[in-house]
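Here's what a typical entry looks like (Kinesin motor domain-containing protein):
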Amino acid sequence: MTEIWCRKEAALKKLPKTVPGVPSKNITSARVRTWDLPNLSNRHRYLALLSYLEIYNERLRDLLRDDTGESLTLKEDPTKGTYVAGGLREVTVKDATECAALVQQGDQRRVAAATKMNAASSRSHAVLTLSLEAIAINDDDKRGNAIRRGRLHLVDLAGSERQTRTGATGDRLKEAASINLSLSALGNVISALAAGNGRHVPYRYK
């Protein structure tokens, strides 16, 4: 599993919604043979799946569904590990063009609002996940129909904000508080992981 995180200051995010963000740039710039799935190997069959979710005010929403009002939840399972429950949509994709179209569709559903620093400020974090499965189909393979799975997570973080600079009030202020709290919690997790020494990692902090 691979994760790529990106965080920008709010002042740097004065971009129209038509400008591709971190997830779409990474997907559409893929020039590796991963996208030539049928020709990778005659011993495997490949399947690529894309999902896109938003974290807004501590709630999860599926950005690839028309009805994004239903909140998803995180669950833990001894076998699955941590996963999203509630019907997160995974779409089969064949190439970067199909991925880019889905990302653009999801970006249009993300919550954005105007502040003094940005006319279309992202008010949420987003996680784009590309899952790839390689299924062995050659009878000579001693492992039989073994399945190998890999995942790439692209995480677009909303920028931290200061009320004195953004002029946020009401809902915008509530959103900013949620954004800053989650970024602080993430920072604590990263610091604990970097420190090592058996230090407690506060994954569950709220």
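The chain has two domains: 42-158, 162-205.

More examples are in the samples folder.
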